[in-house]
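Example record for the data management plan.
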Amino acid sequence: MTTPDDEPGPYDGKFGPAEVRDPVIRRELKRATAWAMVAVAVLLVWQLAQALLLILAGIVFASLLDGGTKLLRPIIPFSRALRLLVVVVLIIGGLAGVGWLAGIEIANQAEQLRITLTDQFERLLAMLDELGMTPGGTELTQIIRDVLGSVGSLTSALGSAVSGIATLFLIMVIGLFIAIDPNLYDRGIQWMLPRGTRPEFRKTTQRMSKTLQRLLAGRVLGMVFEGFITWLGLTIAGVPMALLLGILAGLLAFIPNIGAFITGVLMVAVGLSASPELGFYAFLVYLVVQTFDGYVVIPMVAKQTVDLPPALTLSAQILFAALFGIIGLALADPIVAMIKAALERRSEHNDEEEEAAQRRAAEEGATPTDPG
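Corresponding structural encoding:
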């Protein structure tokens, strides 16, 4: 038979031994917990940086596909799915066409480029040895040659690297899935946000998407221009491997500043491998293309797309390349452009809130008081 002492009594409302009674300490513990969660989130982002950048690259590719569908809207106004299919077919067809028409020649020129660059670097190191500009002696020179040899091997394996192809394939698949129905993912993210922030988040993402699409449109235009003009100029000058150098110039044009420098080094090195005159002609072609691109093409494109300060883009490229490697270098420009768009929209939102508050204050001040 149970007694009243055997049954649990009601909660008396007193603090337990594990509870913090001081409200100040409780508030500080909540803050400390929030900061600890932020630190854990930063650590996770750092550990998953490569995967996150891969997803971001897919978003960039999806933005490119979506921009293509919008360009085809006047031609095919009735079906977005059909426009997207046309854009995908054009991209795949263009890549396959280049590979089919010039695949063998590009492969031969790629191997020739590796040999040429290795030979030119060997000559440069030999000249530095003669001038006494390598303080480490033969050991340091051999280390540098080994590094340059690995760079040459990387150049020759550029077209057949399994990891690179797999990464590119994943980026294209992620981008295609997002481009099929971008509103689905946008609504999903908004669903996880507080209701009051959803309209502003929608406006911010739309601004970022438009900015990214304009940036990519300008980049693609610059890539086509630099690639074609470089190939044409080098062919007229008689520089070897003009087709491969034109393709590399077009691809590297996606990365401003650093891409142009790498293109110039490759062009001059290949030209000098044939003769000093061709080296000079290659440098002249590079100078003309970059000058025209810098003073005519880029300003015209920037007026219609995104005008990013050169020092800001270069600093972001150096930082992202040091942190995340080649994929960080390639995505530095889009990331900076999206951050700029988000900050601009944030500033506009603050101005709108301030104007609304001023209007409310003016209306309240103009409201007549009740005489009763």
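Summary line stored alongside the record: The CA atoms of residues 53 and 327 lie 7 Å apart.
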